Amino acid sequence: MPRVLGYAEPLSVAPGEEIRFMVGTLDGPRRYRAEVVRVVCGDVAPDALKTVRVPTSIDGEHAGVPQPIHAGSYAVVERPDAFAGLTRFTMHAFIQPTRVPMRPVPQRQVIMGTWAEDRGTGFALLLDEAGALALLLGGRLISLGAPLTARRWYHVAASVDLTARTATLRQAPLAEHTPSLERAIERTLTLDASAQPGAELFLAAARRGIEAGRLATTWHFNGKLDRPALVRRALTSAELAAPGLAIAPKDLLAAWDLGADIDGERVSDRSPNHLHGRTVNAPKRAVTGHNWDGTAMDWRRAPEQYGAIHFHDDDLHDAGWAPSLTTRIPADARSGVYALRLAADGGPDFWVVFYVRPPRRGPRAPIAFLASTATYLCYSNYRARMRPGPAELYIGALPTVDTTDLLLMHHPELGGSTYDVHSDGSGVCHVSRRRPLVNVRPTGRLWNLLLDLCLLDWLEAHELPYDVITDDDLHAEGLPLLQDYAVVLTGCHPEYYSREMLDALAAYLGRGGRLMYMGGNGFYWRVSYPASHPGLIEMRRAEDGTRAWVESVGEYYHSSTGEYGGLWRRQGRAPNVLAGVGFVAQGFDRSSYYRRTEAGHDPRARFIFEGIAEDVLGDFGLFGDGAAGLELDAFNTALGSPPWALVVASSENHSNAFQLVNEEMNVSFAGADGQFSAAVRADMVFYEHPAGGAVFSTGSIAYVGSLGHAHHANNISRLTLNVLRRFLDPSPFKPPTSR
Amino acid sequence: MFAIDPGRLDLVREFRERPFGPHSPELQAVLNVLRAARHCQNLLLVCTRPHREWILAEKQPGGLPPRLLTDRVFASLQEAEWHAFRVRWEAVTGQPLPPLDPA
Predict the structure, then answer these.
(1) Partner of A628 at 20 to 30 A CA spacing, among A145, A284, A650, B43?
(2) Nearest CB to B20: which of A45, A385, A397?
(3) Contact present, A507 and A478 (Cβ < 8 Å)
(4) CB-CB contact of A591 with A623 (8 Å)
């Protein structure tokens, strides 16, 4: 495993601009070597890796130190004065724990309080190691001793009277929507402790201390927390049993409304004391609360039913590492995919990938390669294939990882991908680039960036001038980023798209632009980039589609934008509308070939096949010896494919591992694999856009892996070159008039 | 439920010759059994030298790292697939595979 890790800020940088690298070592301080390279070809075959060294001020050997990652989300109210010296008070909240008891290592989970492990002072309402409601105050712990049940709602409270040396604990299941056999439990226990000094108040965590100058937390709560509140007096049993009871404002110390400010980090206190807080590590908001009754699915329509936050002990937004290396990208650096290559003895190199875009002012290359940085991020730190599950059955072969991937299983604090689940089993719907991205690199699994580099290698081999721009740039800047390019090429798998990115591509085509969609399963899921959380992507695996996990019911709407999450296909913007094709099947054992169709002989398509005599195309390639493989898209006018588009070639004879995706089969049926169903295929599509531009789509992720076959002298390379050359020609395309 | 016929060595030969599909429907049925949850050893391949060397590993529950099976090193994915097939076939059918004719 690598012994040195890092990440970059910003992700995309122009020549002459500064970039910072946050670098940390593993297992103690150690020296490491760094160099900046432009990546031309990935490690797709023995001796295939091609990089160009770009001299910078940070080249050479450096002393590295470990930089910890404090994963786990919580909210903090930084007003120690407000919580000091309380002698009579009550804490109460609605909670839905999702990991009780904690296994394999039993651990406490704090609901709310000021407990500081480093000082041994404060108080906290928590779940003890067995998952039972408990109160910790001044080092004394009292517990109800009855573990809560995971994924059930409870009202929990602790009413403390230090002058009477008693505390009343109460846990009551909420049975309004789900029948429960549990009964409310309430006990008044002796508590011989004194008033506690002030500290920050935490929701869903406790202070561990200051480590390397940063606040560290512990005992993170897994689950939902709704309407936490602090009252300035010890509520009576009758009051505790009526959680809806209004408390006089003068008695309220704080009453946090977690359903407010859902799109950001703020936690609002509705008491007169304005003890507002903020969330850390991007817990999931816009989640159903204790009173959600199923009548509203959109949090904006019933905010009072979305008063909860779902915290996880492995949420991560910003690793917060100190910058280790800072340099300026040379003013004459050409646009491309770059990396800071980090090497330390004892493990493989670690690649911190970043992108150099063209100068902000000045000439553009005619071709833009649009790096699928949203998709790379959604797949970043993917560990699901290393956990038990049916991966081998849908891959059609043994899942393969390398020793760098293993890092993720040894360091869970690195956080997961949107294909993973949290430690409580709920889906990961936030991914951040402000942490080491272990699998975004020019080595390892033949997927995403590594495959996309085959396209750059092909452009280089044909000496075709190109710029590299990113999804992140496109989301932020829209059409102006694209408008000067003659042709835009996507990567092999631009799966995750924001509305802003789709709008920009549509506007580009509306101005006569030319789009080459060089892959499969593109434009599939909606994502958003929360303005409140730089570097973060939000996505919700709602309702339909090929899903690594299924979004909780009632939680399909994004917290950051209010957008309905899920497939673009279910939102009136199927990939077919833009690309002419949409996702239909996947399999990962072997690829197949395309066969030129009758429509491929249409005079409109003649330029595509110039110099290609054979009808079988791409019966070779890096992935499984074929150009049609991994994930496949097909033409479908019912989903919006332009009726005048030409399906110029289609793949056939896919392996048994290729299955129709579930959104293509309303009723499950047999014979849906590549050996039985003709619907399992990639369609290669060309259409002229009414604005004078055009779209060419390959419909297969594996396609770009065939470009380099036989030193780029093959029919896939020739076909792609034919299309690109015509697309570079400014002569407008004209759709046929009769369709 | 479908059960593997241990006498169908023709399917074993088919897999050895072509571990990655397309497979005959009968071989696919065998693979469905060998890779299914009730028999699957939750195997994983770990590449230890790029393009040259792989070892098997066993996935672990509870988020734990895979257990590396370092006793055997494979020089190709095909070789690893064949090994996994043989081990599973023998475990599921309870019968050792006899020596096969040369491919």
Answers:
(1) B43
(2) A397
(3) yes
(4) yes
**Token pair for residue A112?**
């709310």
Q: Using an 8 Å Cβ cutoff, are A413 and A2 in contact? A: no
Name the segment(s) of chain A with CATH classification 2.60.120.200: 74-311
Two tokens at A381?
A: 């730190």
| H helix count then E strand count, chain A | 11, 43
Backbone angles phi, psi at A473, to 5 degrees: -65, -45
Round to whole Å and give the CA distance between A242 and A92: 11
A283 vs A314: CA distance, rounded Å: 10
Residues of B in contact with A385 (CB under 8 A): 44
Closest CA to A497 of A438, A381, A428, A582: A582
Radius of gyration of chain B (CA): 14
DSSP sequence for B28-64:
HHHHHHHHSTTT---EEEEEEETTTEEEEEE--STTP
Residue A186, phi then psi, degrees to nearest 5: -140, 130
Mean pLDDT of chain A: 96
Cβ atoms of residues A636 and A576 within 8 Å: yes
Cα torsion A456, A460, A464, A467: sign = positive
Task: Report how far apart, in Å, the C-alpha atoms of A446 and of each of A249, A386, A441, A687 are.
Answer: 60, 16, 10, 30
Residues A617-649 have pLDDT tens digits of: 999 999 999 999 999 999 999 999 999 999 999
- Residue pointed to by tokens 């797949």: A379
pTM: 0.97
H-helix segments, A443-556:
448-461, 471-477, 479-482, 499-510
CATH number for region A74-311: 2.60.120.200
> Residue A119 gets which letter from DSSP?
T
pLDDT tens per residue, range A335-366: 999 999 999 999 999 999 999 999 999 899 99
CA distances from A183 to A101, A174, A326, A623 (A): 19, 9, 59, 58
Lowest mean pLDDT among A120-124, A551-555, B10-14, B94-98: B94-98
Query: CB distance A409–B65 less than 8 Å?
Result: yes
Is it the case that residue A720 has pLDDT exceeding 70? yes
Closest-CA distance, B99 to chain A, in angstroms, reads 24
Residue whose C-alpha is closest to residue A506's, from A533, A474, A534, A476: A474
The counts of H helices and E strands in chain B are: 3, 3
The torsion angle over the Cα atoms of residues A443, A449, A454 and A455, rounded to 10 degrees, is: -160
Tell me the sheet residues that pair with A223: A97, A311
